[in-house]
What we know:
The chain is an alpha+beta fold. It has helices spanning 41-44, 47-55, 81-98, 106-110, 125-173, 178-193, 203-216, 219-236, 243-264, 267-287; strands at residues 8-16, 19-28, 33-38, 61-71, 78-79, 116-117. The strands form two sheets. A four-stranded mixed sheet has the order 1-2-4-3. It has a two-stranded antiparallel ribbon with strand order 5-6.
Amino acid sequence: xxxxxxxxxxxxxxxxxxxxxxxxxxxxxxxxxxxxxxxxxxxxxxxxxxxxxxxxxxxxxxxxxxxxxxxxxxxxxxxxxxxxxxxxxxxxxxxxxxxxxxxxxxxxxxxxxxxxxxxxxxxxxxxxxxxxxxxxxxxxxxxxxxxxxxxxxxxxxxxxxxxxxxxxxxxxxxxxxxxxxxxxxxxxxxxxxxxxxxxxxxxxxxxxxxxxxxxxxxxxxxxxxxxxxxxxxxxxxxxxxxxxxxxxxxxxxxxxxxxxxxxxxxxxxxxxxxxxxxxxxxxxxxxxxxx
Length: 291
């Protein structure tokens, strides 16, 4: 399994044993797995089972699951008005106790579990459960197909952005060795302005240049940045969900670039640091959409 987006939608319908089940799944970004079910009471009673089925294909994100049931005799799922009234009263009483306004509207009420009912049917609960499970798995496959397609597009975009980042990293590395030499020339000019002449072999000058070379050395930061880049590419091409790890690597890359920028003391490198930080920020925004 390649990179998967956290957003998508899937639908499925299964008709069997005198009953038709329609399932719609929608998934949006969320750090953890969250499952919201809207279904008739006899189906909502199996909430844990439906959650387990969906979690077999989705590890992270907020999943909204809507299940509708209709029987061959023409009966179909309807709203349970009394249940809706009771729930509204409970919520209003709770809001009054908490001293907060009750902003729950009808749309939110009817989406809550147990707010619908299905006419009596001779269908055994096990048979209904089997049909719902089949429809749910088909909807999940449809949802994951959309997530995979969007994930592939996101991955392609990220590969391109990482390639651009590497190009800038190499540009940062090119002028770095010249920074101490430029510092040496600047130091000689400043000392000369004071009426003192320094030659290249002067011990004090050599010591100052060596200290500058140590302070301005960004080779370790650039090496670690490259290591994070390689790790990022490996995770992006892996078969396991890696959104969280990719997000962490973005933070680490940003930290290395920040450190390099503060150490280098070079205008050209400072300009490249700004570009690279913008690349990393754009990469991290895209990573937020990956499972």
